[in-house]
Structures are given as C-alpha cells and as structure tokens.
Specification:
Blueprint: H1 3-33, H2 43-55, H3 69-81, H4 92-97, H5 106-110, H6 120-132, H7 146-158, H8 169-174, E1 177-178, E2 184-185, H9 191-205, H10 210-225, H11 233-237, H12 244-247, H13 257-267, E3 278-280, H14 288-291, E4 295-299, E5 302-305
Antiparallel strand pairs: 1-2, 3-5, 4-5
Helix pairs in contact: 9-10, 9-13, 10-13
C-alpha cells in the first residue's frame, strides 16, 4: 500500500474542505453585512420594524433588535402583501408603507413619544384628537411617525406648551385625554374635564363676579352640546381661534379654587346664560362679527350672546 499517495489524498481533501468552508463563510459574511435596512441596521431601526410587523400580524418573533431570518421573512411577507418588491430589505418604499421614519435620530425620537406608553391605542387617541382639531392630516393608524410628532409639536407650540414632541402630563391634559390602559378620551364630567374647564374659566374670567365665571363655563358646555362645535370640552377650548386665553397662553395658568368651583357648578347644570354660545368684553372686542350677535344679557364685563 502506498501510504504516501494516501496521505497526499487526505491533505488534498482537507484543503478542498477548508476552501469550501472559507467560501461559505465569506458568502455568509457578505450576506450578513448587506444592509437589511437601507438607513442602517441599528437596534432602534430593527425594533421599530419588528414592532410594526408584529402589530400588523406579519411577525411573531421577539422584538429584540436583532435582524434574523424570521424578521427578514416577515419583511418579505409584508412586501408581497402590499405590492412591494419582496427583497426583504427595508428601503424607502417599504419604510413609507410601514409608516416609519427611520434613521440615526429615530431612536431618540421614539424612546418615549408618549410618557405613559407608545401603545397602539395611545397613539391612535393622540392622532384622533390632533386630526379632529386640524393639527394632523395623516392616517389615524396607531403608528408613531414624523407626521404625528410634528403635529404634537405644532399643538404644543400653538398652546404655549414645551414643544418637545413628547406627550407628557401637560400635553395629555391639554388634549383632554386620559391615556394609559384604556387610552380612551376622558369622559365629559371627570376630573380632567373639571380641571381644564376651571383653567379656561380662570384664564378668561378671573376677577369677574362668580355668576360670570360660571357663565363662561356654561358657554363652553353649551358649545359641546351644539352640533356646530367639537363635542368635547377640550375640543371646544382648543378649537383654533376660539378663546383669547388659549391664543396668548393664559390657559396654562393654574386655576384657583373659585374657578374650579365655578367649573363644577357649570358641569352640574347651572347656566346663567340661558343657552348662550358666545360672550365678549365690549371694552376690548374688535371683531365686527361678534358685535352682530344678539346680546341676551350682561354679567360683569361680558356680554353673552346666542347665534344669529
């Protein structure tokens, strides 16, 4: 037996096996290093993609920020279902279809968009309010993207709040929401509505007779019940251009106990205005339209009017 030839054969086989392993490793590394997300396979971007895919039923794995075969297959499934090129790569078209805004700044903007939790229900609640009041024009889809963030900043800036794009306690209260487990808008007579109504009364009518303060609250509640106005207290108060105190930021002052008592009396049904929808101070009002309305009564410095 020629042991020399046998040894050479074994060496050749080992070399061929090594070449194959190196080739496969290089191929694997090439595929692994390819961009799965065009803007970057960062932890934040991957978790954002996984979150959306899981929420919509395309992905059943863990939201772990790791790009694996299950994430890639979920992306392909999403792409096929939505008429996109099923290459498993999150490019501009796929990113847009997911309602995401990925990139290096995405992590910081996504970490805490809503202090109580970036849940689907909470995001939808915020989007619904912003859309109803004209701050947001996108889809109410429960996905936090650049449009939603920009709308929150617009709302905050307009209403004298810190314009950081984060829905914290002050912004949540100003929107008339009670986010959390249910993420549902607050009921009409709960403590959030009482406090917000008291804030508006204090901002608009502090220094007025107590009856006049209740009257301001009653006007707000009359609008809530009128089909021509938003159907929530927050919606009426923050309707663009409706109240001077919102425009000049006085709505953010803390109400005193008298204003809160007046708010409670109004909520309990006391309406000194007999159904009025408007009021104005004749010493300062310059709007010609408000002067054209029929005046029902005067309380303190305010004239109270019904619709023409």
């Amino acid at each position: 037996m020629d042991f020399s030839k046998s040894k050479h054969k074994r060496i050749i086989m080992l070399l061929l096996s090594l070449i194959m392993v190196l080739s496969l490793t290089a191929s694997f590394r090439s595929e692994a290093n390819a961009a799965n997300i065009i803007k970057g396979d960062t932890y934040s971007n991957i978790t954002a993609v996984q979150t959306v895919l899981k929420r919509w039923g395309y992905y059943t794995g863990s939201i772990d920020g790791i790009w694996g075969s299950r994430t890639r297959e979920a992306v392909k499934y999403f792409q096929r279902t939505n008429g996109l090129s099923a290459d498993g790569i999150v490019g501009a078209a796929t990113e847009k279809a997911m309602g995401l805004t990925l990139g290096s700044s995405y992590s910081s903007s996504r970490s805490k968009n809503i202090i109580k939790g970036d849940t689907w229900a909470n995001i939808r609640a915020v989007q619904s309010v912003l859309k109803k009041w004209g701050y947001y024009t996108g889809a109410v889809d429960g996905v936090w993207g650049s449009k939603t963030r920009a709308a929150v900043i617009y709302f905050q800036r307009t209403n004298g709040l810190t314009a950081d794009g984060i829905v914290g306690a002050a912004t949540e209260r100003a929107m008339g929401l009670n986010l959390g487990g249910s993420s549902a808008p607050a009921s009409r007579n709960n403590s959030n509505d009482l406090y917000l109504l008291g804030k508006c009364i204090y901002a608009e009518a502090r220094g007025e007779p107590y009856t006049g303060m209740v009257a301001v609250g009653a006007v707000i509640l009359n609008r809530v019940k009128n089909a021509n106005f938003p159907n929530t207290i927050a919606g009426v108060i923050y309707q663009p251009g409706a109240f001077t105190a919102v425009d000049d930021g006085q709505i953010n002052l803390s109400p005193n106990q008298t204003a809160l008592n007046a708010a409670q009396d109004a909520l309990n049904g006391w309406d000194p205005t007999y159904g009025c929808l408007y009021y104005f101070n004749p010493a300062t009002a310059t709007n010609k339209w408000i002067w054209s309305l029929p005046i029902v009564l005067k309380i303190g410095k305010h004239n109270f009017c019904k619709a023409a």
